[in-house]
Design goal:
By secondary structure, the protein is an alpha+beta fold. The protein contains 4 helices and 9 strands. The strands form 4 sheets. It has a 3-stranded antiparallel β-sheet. It has a two-stranded antiparallel sheet with strand order 1-2. Strands 3-4 form a two-stranded antiparallel ribbon. The longest helix has 13 residues. It starts with a strand and ends with a strand.
Amino acid sequence: MLRQGGGQRVRRVPAPFFSYHPDPIASGSIRADAETFAGEFSDSYGLAGVSEDVLHEATRRTPGFHASQDPHWLVHCQDAAAFVGEVGYTELAARPEALDQLRADMRLDGWHDENRLQHFLTHLGEGATAMLFRCTVCGAHLAYADAS
């Protein structure tokens, strides 16, 4: 129990669990205010190839997250991945499979100068960040870059 001004008791309500966004309070996606929660949902951008049930769960029952560019969910093992949070290079480097996947995706998007690509990646957290996800099936981490 929490006490508000005047000694009034306020009951602390635990946040509901979301398979595709396990800790939306820590990621800053939703705010808890006693018995209510405020947040927004995401659209289906990035969710190609998942079942209708997964699409419904990710877009209508899972809090979205904020990004400078259009936020989108990553897919792995034919399932929506769980959003972990916005990270910089240090956090991303601790998950080498996510860093390798991001590097490969950026090469496909036209980042062919290795020095420029490496500089961009090592400076994540300074203007640009990475959105980190974890596969709900195999546990692999993956990410995409979000630059303003």
